[in-house]
């Protein structure tokens, strides 16, 4: 098929191999010429004059090869265009960081990059028809489980504090005058029971300071989470109680081991606490301080039993994620609000909300890339690992990522955040203040998805596990046939991997930043929840 035969009377033998690139493979070593002159002569001689017409099979292969080469060239050109980095102001030695976290920043910031487009593919899950019946069944089951959990914790709190109140009451060590006047008979067996000395468990129950179930029932129960980039701490299930009879509070941690075994332990001991930062620093906690989204701050040094990962930070910040509104409304009538501080806090919120609204316009459709890149950049600036950076660091970060904040707005925000005058602010708090964050309803599903992936509770998930768990079967483009499951999965993994400081695993903070950026472009809470529920099966 691949040869043209010429009579032996001719001077040369002509070869017509199927592929010209393998022409020399048909020539034995003794036939290969040793000079350029002979090589040129051979090349001229092996070109036949009367080639047969190519078969349809070879034509099809050639067309496929041509198409693949064209696509490969286009992709190569596109990647080169995306790698173009704008000139950035020269950094001081103390602020030098890895260039990878800013490599996606183009000079023309209005154009979306390939990473932006791949990240926006996740929004497709919001277009899936909402299955109200299935969602309602799942929600009902979750509500029942949550109520059972709260009831278990509430019962444990009652048991702990009612028993402790009796046993630790100082009156247990006091003897009444009538008892002192009675002469104790040496033989304790003969002595009447009412005259015997009783202590600890053989104690009188009626004491003046004993707590009762009625007193402890005047409380507000709330759910909380730790504000932290440490995945293990951020996913702890905390339930707290604020008691109005003495303005004290306590927080318990609910732990579940497998399906049936649970444990409830005190996390913050019952006591009277005060704010540790902000406008209300030094003020005692009151009923008005408890609402969804409120922060409760504690000095970690005051709680020696806290985990070591939490004690590394000076402040422990608890965010209220849910609250018993019925109990709160019934008790609020007796609370007193500090009007001056409340008005100052309202003004602070107006300032920060104005900055957030301006930045959200700039982050539209680019939120994932910018927020994940900004998180990596600030983490690299934090050489000491304290989480604290100064004003110059934040200004430089905003400039590199093309986030425009006026000088006046920046100074106003800095005055609010740097309330203690130390000159340094936690970079997580800075991001939340000027960019904002998703509401607690959305964040609860982000935590739920991460907890499903992080079954070892280490705070980090290997990318290989994420690849196994992510399901793109119900993505609209897969259903319509425009894309395969593997293509959608690879798009997600590529954008998520770009957010990670390590190439083989994802931390909770990086996972949260990814969905924080995605959340900016999603208006409806249910659409956002659908984006998490569908691929992760939660």
TrEMBL record:
Record's keyword annotation contains Membrane: no
Name of this protein: CAYP2 protein
Domain of life of the source: Eukaryota
The keyword Metal-binding is annotated on this UniProt entry: yes
GO molecular function, one term: calcium ion binding
Matches recorded under InterPro entries: Ca-bind, CAYP2_PH, EF-hand-dom_pair, EF_hand_dom
Keyword terms: Calcium, Metal-binding, Repeat
Organism (species): Crocuta crocuta (Spotted hyena)
Domain EF-hand: 369-404, 405-440
